[in-house]
Amino acid sequence: LLLSNGLTVTCEESEDFKYLAYKVTYSVVFPIGFISNSVALFVFLCRTPEKSANTVFMTNLAISDVGFSLTLPFRLVYFFRGGQWDFPDWFCRWCVFSFYVNLYTSVLFLTGLSILRYIAVVQPFRNKSLVTMRRASLSCFAIWIFVACLSTPFLMSGTSMRDEKTRCFEPGNNKSWKRIFILNYVGVLFGFVIPFFIILICYGCIICKLIKGEYSQTMNTRRRAVYMIAVVLSTFLLCFLPYHVARTVHLHAKVLEKNCQVIEFLLKGLVISLCMAASNSCFNPLLYYFAGETFRKAIIRRAPHRRTFSLFKQSGRQRQSSLQKSRKLHP
Description:
12 helices; G protein-coupled receptor activity; receptor; disordered N terminus
């Protein structure tokens, strides 16, 4: 629908599809993302006696995912209420801020893990001298500061009034859209394009090393490298790439005031891609499992089927021992 407002013409966007998609996605992502990343965080902090640079990056990645997951119940309340924000304005700003912080810290932490894997595989003799806990901790700290600074403008986007409702997560005027338009290119360049190229270079070198057979580590370590490549590339291609493409195209159409039907169509693509981007917190535990040996062992050790199997073995041994004793007593 076209709405005339003075000299500007804006489009009234349908909210049904958008709100339904967010309600379904966040209802799934919240329990899976929160529980799996909380378990990972517990394992990294309390069940990993020997910390490594990989553990440092994975711990920070899990912290980012848990922090974002904690905002999802409030988003769900908003969308189930039909777009009515019942919480303080500052918390609306924080929820918007946390989405972008999680998105881009995830990208950069995954890039850091890819660089660590590259050094371990391609430069194994320099691994111990280049990779240290201190450098990993400083790198993660720098990533938090860098992303927080770049995401600070989103703290300016608070609540707005529309249709007699207090809105959140929805830019209220053309000035807000133009600010997001500029921030979009900063995010695309530093939060996706550059990290993605670094990851492609790292994994290209790793694959070449594996194909040439110059990698001297065990088959298990090779398999872990392949699993990590698959999980990280899948996360980038399924979660991050569609969102950045859809967001850029939609913002172009919005700022240039394209036809309302075009904007509505692009908005649906943006909504779907944003749901995929929000689900990245569900992919990361797969990375912990396949690439993190300590995490995998801790999960397997506490798996229900393993405990059941151990109980069966133990009870079997007890029965066998009882039979042997009875035979001795009653030959």
